[in-house]
Amino acid sequence: MSTAANMVEIRNVSRAFGQSVAVDNANLTLQRGDFLTIVGPSGCGKTTLLRMIAGFDEPSRGEILINGQNVASVPAYQRSIGMVFQKLALFPHMTAFENVAFPLRMRRFNPALIPELVDRYLSLVKLDHLAARRPHQLSGGQQQRVAIARALSFSPDLLLLDEPLSALDKKLREEMQLEFRRIQQELGVTTINVTHDQREALVMSDHMIVMDEGVVQQSNTPREIYNRPGNRFVAGFLGVTSMFKGRVSAIQDGLLSVDMGGVTMTARGNDALFSIGDAIDCAVRAEQITLLEEGAQARENTVTGLVRQRIFEGDRMVYEVRVEDMNDSSLYVFDHNPGKHGEHDVDTTVRLGWNAESFYAFPVVK
Amino acid sequence: MSLIPSKKWVLWSLVSFSLVTLSLPTIIIIGASFTSGDIIQFPPDGFSLRWYERLWELDDFKDAFLRTFQVSLICTVVAIPVGTLAALATVRYRMRFQQTIQVYLLLPFTIPLVVSGIAMMILFGEIRILGQLWPVGIALCLINLPFMIWSVSSTVNGLDPELENAAHSCGAPPVQTFFAVTLPAVMPGIITGALLMFILAFNEFLVSLFLTDARTVTLPVQIYNSIRSVITPDLAAVSVVYILVALLAVWLLDRLVGLDIFLKSR
Q1: Contact (CB, 8 A) for B184 and A95
Q2: Smallest Cα distance from A155 to chain B, Å
Q3: Which of A96, A109, A300, A359 could be A104's S-S partner, Cβ–Cβ 3.0 to 4.6 Å?
Q4: Mind listing the domains of chain B with CATH numbers?
Q5: Secondary element (H or E) of residue A304
Q6: How far is A246 from A268, CA to CA, in rounded Å?
Q7: Residue B265's pLDDT band (boundaries 50, 70, 90)?
Q8: Residue of A51, A58, A66, A85 to mutate for B, most B C-beta atoms under 10 A
Q9: CATH code 2.40.50.100 region(s) in chain A
Q10: pTM value?
Q11: Regarding the domain with residue range A6-232, which homologous superfamily does it belong to in the CATH classification?
């Protein structure tokens, strides 16, 4: 028996449905008490992976260990896993109290202790005053809280969240994100969250996995993944990212000189992946680009372009700028203080600059 | 929301017209049943309960009523498990020939009742159960089963597809999941379907005509037989009994499930 320092361990797990591969050779380890978010566009395999962990689906290959035990032959109802479902799946004929008590009854907790436990978890989600209501008599956010209490009341080894926040409006969703995080930290329960919302992934998790087309693209802390995207997909998926095509003209110490069409720029990339003459993709995030005022000092990469679109987002102004020198590509740039800097009109020329450090180079994916 | 007066007027007249046309036959038959004369007429000739008293004395009608009740009960008791399981299986679980089975179960709708009636009469005759009461109940269950299946299916369709998985993640094994979660969750559809089956069986005439004889005649067939001799106001009184049974069913439905599921589109 393993000592199970890792609560969850996934080894070379694949799942195919007929011809299509939903999950392709996924590996991950999750330490006790950690909050992991699996993020990716719809159809990336994140839900399939979660369902295999829950026991609703079986891997075609590979193995899943929970608390050190291979769960291949353990049915879902014998795994110690609490789950909050996308549409919550509360039991419509039971009150909030009965919903939360259900897992305790099914798992044969001492009947005398059940009311106290239910009360404790309903107050944890701040819903103790509505215990007698049926799900349809509760608001969306309140139903959410019942679902959380139901998933946690029996102190599972592992909590799974299957995009439970996706149906809520923005304000409530952000409130619930923090609520989930508070409860998770309070109880210290190991949690896997699945979402397509990058903000949710960044805000809530200790650890983050980005998936696309069934493949784990990158696995690290949110900060590392955001600041050091491992490939073109991850760079484009997180944040507001502009992509350019270029060709490597020189390589030195992790810095590439890239011929972008009219200008040569400096980008950051792993030396080993490139050789001179390669076609590459370069990416820069909107917040890394500075609108250079007249007379301002040039950055490592400086271009001039034409404002094509101006979008007011309240806390910031977003400009879409076309740069002739970069194969007529468009890029997005934020101005977080439009009041101070003044607005740039459409069809006026602006000068933009960003550092080599925030200009990521990736090999072109075939 | 306020309506333009002319629009309001048109709407109201349409509604009242529909209400009157729908309820007129019922009102006439109720009125006629209280007549003190010897023929069915409206407005009634005076007021009396004599035809209800006569109905109570007519053993033919009373026995037919009890038999009909029995037949409807058999029909409903059989329909509940069969219809519920069929609906759950065809909607909820992936299985082979799913579509074929769905179409097959709805087949009774496409066959004219005369054909079903004759077919079952021949079949029941062959296996020598014609002339008993319970086969009539089974037959009525068979021809009306699609209603039961529809009723349960519509509830099943409204359920969260992950409901059973949620129960599993709560630690409930399959059998307990079925009895503690699935079944209670579809109960509104089962109750609705069961009451529907009961009323339909209670009213069923054509198939019963083929399957009953003098000893097993049911109420609708009994009424039909009496129309062919003399039409007396006791028939109006029987009709009122029918209306009462229907009202009772609606009242039960409202108490058990709530009528708003029919009035609200979800």
Answers
A1: no
A2: 11
A3: A109
A4: 58-263 (1.10.3720.10)
A5: strand A301-312
A6: 13
A7: very low
A8: A85
A9: 240-363
A10: 0.82
A11: P-loop containing nucleotide triphosphate hydrolases (3.40.50.300)
Nearest to B158 by CA among A83, A87, A198, A200: A87
The CATH class of the A240-363 domain is mainly beta
Return the bridge partners of A193, or none. A37, A161
End-to-end CA distance of chain B: 22
Give the DSSP letter of residue A174: H
3-class SS string, chain B: CCCCHHHHHHHHHHHHHHHHHHHHHHHHHHHHHCCCCCCCCCCCCCCCCHHHHHHHHCHHHHHHHHHHHHHHHHHHHHHHHHHHHHHHHHHHCCCCCHHHHHHHHHHHHCCCHHHHHHHHHHHHHHCCCCCCCHHHHHHHHHHHHHHHHHHHHHHHHHCCCCHHHHHHHCCCCHHHHHHHHHHHHHHHHHHHHHHHHHHHHHHCCHHHHHHCCCCCCCHHHHHHHHHHCCCCCHHHHHHHHHHHHHHHHHHHHHHHCCCHHHHCCC
Tell me what percent of the residues of chain A surpass a pLDDT of 90.
70
Question: Are A218 and A235 within 8 A, CB to CB?
Answer: no
A118 vs A102: CA distance, rounded Å: 10
Indicate the pLDDT class of residue B190, thresholds 50, 70 and 90: very high
B43 preceded by a cis bond (ω within 30 of 0): yes
Residue A262: half-sphere exposure toward Cβ, Cα within 13 Å? 11
Looking at residue A313, its amino acid is E
d(CA B50, CA B44): 13
pLDDT at B2: 60
Enumerate chain A positions whose Cβ falls within 8 A of a Cβ in B: 54-56, 75-79, 81-83, 85-93, 102-103, 106-107, 150-151, 154, 160
CB contact under 8 A, A103 and B171: yes
pLDDT confidence bin for B34, thresholds 50/70/90: confident
Q: What ipTM does this complex have? A: 0.85
Two tokens at A35? Answer: 């909050």
Q: Spell out the residues 6+ positions from residue A317 whose beta carbon is closer than 8 angstroms to its own.
A: A310, A311, A334, A335, A338, A343
CA distance A143 to chain B (A): 14
Q: How far apart are CA B99 and CA B96, in angstroms?
A: 8
Q: Does B132 touch chain A (CB under 8 A)?
A: no
What stretch of H or E contains A152?
helix A140-152
Query: Where in chain A is CATH 3.40.50.300?
Result: 6-232
User: b/e string for B191-202 if b means 16 or more Cβ within 10 A?
Assistant: bbbbbbbbbbbb
Q: What is d(CA A182, CA A189) in angstroms, rounded to the nearest whole number? A: 11
